[in-house]
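Q: what sequence does this backbone want?
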């Protein structure tokens, strides 16, 4: 992806999140990015293509973050890495993820399908560890870390390290 394409995507992400997808024109994105509207159409076809590129970029980043969980062979390590996921988001990336979350909520974008490999990996880890209800336990853990991730992005967690230790201890780490 070129620097101009990155600039366009960042501008679109900011404007879509602040003003809403439907209320933001490609002309406004072009002005914000300092490019011509024609360049947006050349690279992304239309506004929907722009949105699709933004969400794809976020999904790719997310997949990188959970790939080492899916390919982990030790079930205990799989669970530990899952717990640590939200705590590994770097502060410099908070704004990107906040904008993505806001945009997904506005657009009703469902990423459940994209989470299936992670859910399956955690479910199999709980199965291997003899959990009596591995699927529900996996769902509980993933919902818990999702909530922690949202709280971290809102900067509403006072004791990040304490919370991390608490949840690790809850699962025996």
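A:
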């Amino acid at each position: 992806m070129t620097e101009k394409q990155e600039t366009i995507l960042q501008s679109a992400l900011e404007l879509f999140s602040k003003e809403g997808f439907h209320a933001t024109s490609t002309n406004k994105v072009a002005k914000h990015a300092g490019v011509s509207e024609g360049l947006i159409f050349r690279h992304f076809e239309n506004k929907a293509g722009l949105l699709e590129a933004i969400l794809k970029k976020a999904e790719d980043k997310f997949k990188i973050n959970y790939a080492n969980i899916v390919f982990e062979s030790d079930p205990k390590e799989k669970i530990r890495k899952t717990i640590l996921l939200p705590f590994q988001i770097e502060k410099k990336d908070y704004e990107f993820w906040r904008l993505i979350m806001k945009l997904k909520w506005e657009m009703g974008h469902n990423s459940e399908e994209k989470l299936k490999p992670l859910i399956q990996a955690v479910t199999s880890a709980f199965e291997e560890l003899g959990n009596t209800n591995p699927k529900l336990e996996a769902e509980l853990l993933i919902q818990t870390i999702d909530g922690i991730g949202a709280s971290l992005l809102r900067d509403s967690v006072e004791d990040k390290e304490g919370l991390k230790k608490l949840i690790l201890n809850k699962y025996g780490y």
